[in-house]
Design brief:
GO terms for molecular function: antiporter activity; xenobiotic transmembrane transporter activity. This protein is mostly helical. Helix content is 78%, strand content 0%.
């Protein structure tokens, strides 16, 4: 498969442009329509396959939860705790570390330094594998950690056992994420969609075989989870080595050079993303302290699972807008970057509103997918309104985060997330959940307020952004990280 062409602005859009390859200013409604049409085609040519791939990957998590839910309510809550707390903790950290490649690879590709992409990817492999080793105690001691956080003993014991069994899946992410970002930065996204699709089909088959036919219970679900995760990682590496000759020049000792600077950017990316992912993970932990924790955690986990399906779509759009912004900044096209952001935010908001309407229309019925328990289904229906509001907010917030990654603003967004989520949203949710009769709804309402504040602040930041200055900063970043061009030597 050939790489898609670089997704920057054409030399002419609304009319002849002399000596400029960026978009001209939008002055009329017709100009806006043309820009919207062009940007929509570019965005969705990247976002469509990426979103499909991420939805398939999330489907692996979701179907694991579904099969566990039909084993029993305790099993549903235990797997939900593992996937939404422990595994989500490591997922967020490793995805954040890997997201540094979205900035560097995207801007390097836009600047024509394609030869450096393979080096960046190898550097990220090294850093993420080291991070996996550091995360191991979290998996090994999951049961006492969950008990310390106040989870019911039965749920904590079962969740901890399942967590140890899925350790191989965590290590697969150290290979998966950097390889994925390497391909995304070049718009080689079709192959990601196919790999994700086949992995999901295989996962459902193996789950059914291990859980329903062999009767291995949660151990079978964990085995299927590990097999599917490593199948995705290995397939991506095979494609990179076999078909990405321009970006992949073989293993190189250069991957170890300047690794500390790369670590700092990776950590900034990780903190930014983790503060978002862990924020919604915390709602599960807090809910475990309420009365009837099995029903509370189970009903909330079903809502989070549905929200996750929509969230995976917007993570795909997040990745696409990151590619668009980083490519345009690397190509020195400030207006194209700005207009791409505007079009993406508007279209994402429309999708979020439609998703919320579907959830509200089916609020009494969608829980049957996950559980046969009538009590659990009724509990889910009571939370549907908050789920709808969350879906609307989550349609805009990931897009803005993608802009931040594409522009290299990770540290700024990390500070904003820390304030909005953990100084405003979390304490408010704790107060409403434990000091009022709202309980789980109160926890969720408080956290929605934090997300709303963060979204407004980031929208203001984007509104005030000087895109010409961002182009200059991208050029400086490429001079810093691309300085080793002459030193690129393959390992033999």
């Amino acid at each position: 498969m050939e790489a898609a062409e670089l997704h920057h602005a054409p030399t002419t859009v609304l009319g002849p442009i002399e000596g400029d390859t960026d978009y001209p200013p939008v002055r009329t409604l017709d100009d806006a329509k043309v820009i919207c049409s062009l940007e929509s085609k570019k965005l969705w040519s990247i976002a469509g396959p990426i979103a499909f791939n991420i939805l398939c990957n999330y489907g692996i998590n979701s179907f694991t939860n579904i099969f566990a839910g039909h084993l029993g309510d305790v099993e549903l809550s235990a797997v939900a705790i593992c996937l939404n707390v422990i595994a989500n903790f490591s997922f967020g950290f490793l995805l954040g570390m890997g997201s540094a490649l979205e900035t560097l690879c995207g801007q390097a590709f836009g600047a024509g330094q394609i030869h450096m992409l393979g080096v960046y990817m190898q550097r990220s492999w090294i850093i993420l594998l080291a991070a996996c080793i550091l995360l191991l105690p979290l998996y090994v001691y999951a049961t006492p950690i969950l008990k310390l956080l106040g989870q019911e003993a039965d749920i904590a014991e079962m969740a901890g056992h399942f967590t140890v069994q899925v350790i191989p899946q965590m290590f697969s992410l150290a290979i998966n994420f950097p390889t994925q970002k390497f391909l995304q930065s070049q718009s080689r996204v079709g192959v990601l969609a196919w790999i994700g699709f086949f992995a999901l089909i295989i996962h459902i088959f193996v789950l059914y075989l291990f859980v329903n036919v062999f009767k291995w219970g949660l151990a079978g679900a964990a085995a299927a989870y590990n097999i599917s995760a490593w199948a995705i990682a290995v397939a991506q590496v095979i494609y990179v080595v076999g078909w990405c000759k321009e970006g992949w020049k073989g293993l190189s000792w250069l991957a170890f050079k300047d690794i500390w600077g790369f670590v700092k950017l990776s950590v900034a990316s990780a903190v930014m993303l983790c503060l978002e992912i862990w924020y919604f993970m915390t709602i599960i932990v807090l809910t475990g302290h309420l009365e009837e924790p099995i029903i509370a955690v189970g009903s909330l986990s079903i809502c989070m699972n549905i929200n996750g399906w929509e969230g995976m779509l917007f993570i795909g759009i997040n990745a696409a807008i990151s590619v668009r912004v980083s490519n345009e900044l690397g190509s020195r096209h400030p207006r194209a970057a700005k207009y791409s952001v505007i079009v993406t935010v508007v279209e994402s908001l429309i999708i979020g509103i439609l998703s919320a309407m579907i959830i509200l229309a089916s609020r009494d019925h969608f829980a049957v997918i996950f559980t046969d328990s009538i009590r659990m289904q009724k509990a889910v229906a009571k939370l549907a309104y908050l789920l709808g509001v969350t879906m609307i907010l989550n349609s805009v917030q990931p897009v803005i985060s993608g802009v931040a990654v594409g522009g290299g603003w990770q540290a700024l967004v990390a500070y904003i997330n820390l304030f909005c989520y953990y100084i405003v949203g979390l304490p408010l949710g704790f107060f409403l959940g434990y000091k009022t009769s709202l309980k789980v709804r109160g926890i969720w309402i408080g956290m929605i307020c934090g997300t709303l504040l963060q979204t407004f602040i980031l929208l203001h930041v984007i509104y005030k952004t000087n895109w010409n200055k961002e182009v200059e900063q991208a050029s400086e970043r490429m001079r810093q990280w691309g300085a080793a061009q002459e030193e690129l030597v393959d390992m033999t």
